[in-house]
Design goal:
Number of helices: 11
Distance between the termini: 13 Å
Structural class: alpha+beta
Number of strands: 30
Bound molecules: 2-oxoglutaric acid, fe (ii) ion
Mean pLDDT: 76
Strand content: 25-35%
Radius of gyration: 27 Å
Length: 552
C-alpha cells in the first residue's frame, strides 16, 4: 500500500484539456462501418485479412459478401441509436459507473473456547446446510500481535497484544505504540513524512507476527469472487495477499489524506485493509472511483460488545482517504493484492464466472450477431474504465491483461468468447499541436520512454510519434464504444518542447481494448485463426514462466 500524494490531478502532473477528448467516434457517415481502405491496415497481433481466418472454404462467396449489390456496406448500415450498437453504448454508459471497485466485510471474533477451530467437530457440510443464513465467514479467535521491541532488554511477554484488548494487558498497547515508527508515504518515488498528509505509526512485517491470516477466514475468497472473478473459460486467476504493514492511526488527529496507492509491481491489482476491534472514533476509510464513493466506517463496531475484524479491499487505481480519528486507536493490517495463477491459496470455493450469463454479454452478442454490423469485419475500441500500471521497464513487457478489473475484464472475456480478437493498446491523448480531427493515436507498446528530442513543429512531433510506435490502424478505422476518461491517463513519454523557451513535456496515454470483429460469412462470423499473438507479452505461457516478480 505504498502511496502517492497528493491526489489524482498531481499523480501525473499534467492535465490534457478536455477539448482534446474525442467523441464516441462515428467514423463514417453511416456510423458503423468504417470506409475500407484500399488495403486494410491492422494491428500487428492479429488482422482481419482473408488469410487470417481459420478456414475459408468457399472463398468466392466470402468475397461476394463484401459488396454483393455494389452498394457498399456503408449504405446498408444506418446510424440509429436504437440499434444494437446504440443500445450497447447506452448500456455501457449507464452501467459502468455502478461496477464494483471495492468490497468489505466483517469476521466475528469469538473467545478461544467458542472458536470452531478449538472444538473437536468443526462445522460439517451438514451443519452448514441446515443453517438458515448464507454461510458466513468463519469466526476468528482473538487476534494476537507480537513484535520486536526497540529495546532488546524488554521481555518478549511484554511485546504481545491480544485483540480485543483485555484490561490486564492494556498497557501493552502503549508499548506497541512506543515500538512503532512514524508512517511515511511515497511521493515521486521518495519516502516522505508529513503529518499534514499522513499521521500514523507503522511496523514493517519483518518486525511483527500475528495469528490473523486473511485466507483462513475466507476474506481472500470473497475478494477474489468480487474483484477478480474468473471467466469459466479463462485462465484461473488467484490472489496472492502480501502483508505490507501494521498501522495505528491515533486520535485526535491520525489520518491519511486522499491518495492512490502505487502498485508495487505490475501484477498488483488492489489493496486490503483489515481493522481490529480496538476502541476509536472517526477514522472512516472512503474509497472512490469515478463519481462513486464507498465509506467503510469501522468505529461503531470497534466499540461494540460483539467484536469483529472488519475489512475493505479495493482496486489499486481507486483514490482513498482515512478521515481523522477523533479518539482512541484505529489498528489495521494492510496487504498488497497480486494476481497469481494456479490454485493460489483459496480455500477451495470455485469462483468461475459464466461470462455468457451477464447482461453485458447479451448486449455484445446482439451487436456481433447483427449481420448488418461490420459485415466485412472491423475494429471496435473500448477505453478501460480503470487505470493500469502501463509503463514497463522493458518495452517487451506489455500492459497486463491478467489484472484487468471489473467491466474491463468482462468486456475482454465476452468479446473473446464471441470469437473476436482482443488486444490492449495505449492511446496517446497528448497533442501539443492540436491537429484536428482526431488527435488521438493508437500505439503498440506500453513502455515509458525518454526521448531526448526537441519538438518545435508538427513534423518533428510526428517524427517522434513514429519512434514511439503508432499502431498500423488508423483512427477512422475504429468504432469507439465509450468515451475516453482522461483521469485514467498515464505518462507515456518525455520530450523537450520548443516554444519561446525549451520546456520538458510529458505525453500521456490511455489504455484501450481494441477488438477485431471478424467478417460475416455464411450466416455467422468467421473464426479468426489466432485471437491474438502479441509481442507485448500478453499471451505468455505463465505456467512455465514466472509472470511477475512478486517479491519485490
Ligand atoms: O487504513 C486504511 O484504511 C487505508 C490505509 C492506506 O490507504 C494505505 O496504507 O495506503
Ligand atoms: Fe492507501
Amino acid at each position: 500500500m505504498e502511496s502517492e500524494l497528493p491526489v489524482r490531478s498531481s499523480r501525473d502532473g499534467h492535465d490534457v484539456p478536455d477539448t482534446e477528448m474525442p467523441d464516441v467516434a462515428s467514423p463514417s457517415p453511416a456510423g458503423r462501418s468504417p470506409s475500407p481502405s484500399p488495403k486494410r491496415q491492422h494491428p500487428i497481433g492479429w488482422s482481419l485479412q482473408d488469410e487470417e481466418y481459420e478456414s475459408d472454404p468457399e472463398d468466392d462467396s466470402v468475397k461476394d459478401t463484401e459488396d454483393q449489390d455494389g452498394t457498399g456496406s456503408d449504405d446498408v448500415v444506418q446510424e440509429d441509436d436504437d440499434d444494437a450498437l446504440g443500445q450497447l453504448r447506452y448500456w455501457l454508459e449507464s452501467n459502468y459507473k455502478d461496477s464494483l471497485f471495492a468490497c468489505g466485510g466483517a469476521v466475528p471474533i469469538v473467545s478461544e473456547a467458542e472458536s470452531p477451530s478449538s472444538k473437536e467437530t468443526p462445522s460439517s457440510p451438514a451443519s452448514q446446510a441446515s443453517s438458515t443464513t448464507a454461510p458466513s465467514t468463519a469466526p476468528h479467535p482473538p487476534v494476537t500481535l507480537r513484535w520486536d521491541p526497540r529495546d532488546s532488554s524488554t521481555p518478549a511477554g511484554h511485546c504481545r497484544l491480544t485483540v480485543p484488548i483485555d484490561e490486564a494487558t492494556s498497557d501493552h498497547l502503549d508499548r506497541l505504540l512506543a515500538d512503532m515508527q512514524p508512517a511515511t508515504f511515497g511521493l515521486g518515488g521518495e519516502d516522505m513524512y508529513d503529518e499534514n498528509y499522513r499521521k500514523a505509526s507503522k511496523l514493517d512485517p519483518s518486525k511483527f507476527a500475528t495469528n490473523f491470516c486473511p485466507y483462513n477466514v475466507g476474506i481472500i475468497d470473497v475478494v477474489s469472487q468480487l474483484l477478480l472473478p474468473n471467466p469459466a473459460s479463462g485462465k484461473q486467476r488467484a490472489i496472492k495477499a502480501e502483508l505490507y504493514k501494521l498501522n495505528v492511526y491515533t486520535g485526535p488527529s491520525g489520518h491519511f489524506r486522499a491518495h492512490v496507492d502505487t502498485p508495487r509491481s505490475r501484477s498488483q491489482f488492489g489493496s486490503l485493509v483489515v481493522c481490529f476491534p480496538v476502541k476509536h472514533e472517526g477514522g472512516a476509510l472512503e474509497v472512490r472511483h469515478e463519481d462513486q464513493a464507498l465509506t467503510f466506517d469501522w468505529a461503531s463496531c470497534a466499540n461494540s460488545d460483539a467484536p469483529q475484524i472488519q475489512w475493505a479491499a479495493f482496486y489499486s487505481d481507486c483514490e482513498h482517504e482515512v478521515f481523522p480519528v477523533q479518539s482512541g486507536h484505529r489498528i489495521t493490517l494492510t496487504y498488497n493484492l497480486y494476481v497469481t495463477f494456479g490454485n493460489g491459496q483459496l480455500s477451495g470455493r470455485p469462483n468461475a464466472l459464466d461470462t455468457t450469463q451477464t447482461p453485458l454479454y447479451r448486449h455484445l452478442e446482439a451487436v456481433i450477431n447483427d449481420d448488418t454490423f461490420l459485415p466485412d469485419g472491423g475494429y471496435l475500441g473500448f477505453y478501460t474504465t480503470h487505470a493500469y500500471p502501463q509503463t514497463a521497464s522493458q518495452p517487451s513487457q506489455g500492459c497486463l491483461t491478467d489484472i484487468l478489473k471489473g467491466l474491463d475484464m468482462a468486456i475482454w472475456h465476452a468479446f473473446q468468447r464471441l470469437g473476436c480478437g482482443v488486444c490492449l493498446r495505449p492511446v496517446l491523448v497528448s497533442d501539443p499541436f492540436e491537429i484536428k480531427p482526431r488527435a488521438f493515436k493508437v500505439g503498440k507498446e506500453f513502455a515509458f520512454r525518454n526521448f531526448h528530442s526537441q519538438v518545435e513543429d508538427y513534423r518533428e512531433w510526428e517524427w517522434m510519434l513514429n519512434r514511439w510506435g503508432p499502431e498500423e490502424i488508423s483512427w477512422s478505422d475504429l468504432i469507439w464504444l465509450n468515451e475516453a476518461n482522461l483521469k485514467t491517463k498515464h505518462a507515456s513519454f518525455a520530450y523537450t518542447a520548443y516554444g519561446n523557451e525549451a520546456s520538458s513535456e510529458i505525453a500521456y496515454s490511455l489504455c484501450a481494448i481494441i477488438i477485431g470483429v471478424p467478417k460475416w460469412h455464411g450466416g455467422e462470423r468467421m473464426r479468426l485463426e489466432t485471437t491474438f499473438i502479441d509481442k507485448g507479452g500478453e499471451e505468455k505461457d505463465w505456467e512455465h514462466e514466472t509472470p511477475y516478480d512478486l517479491d519485490n
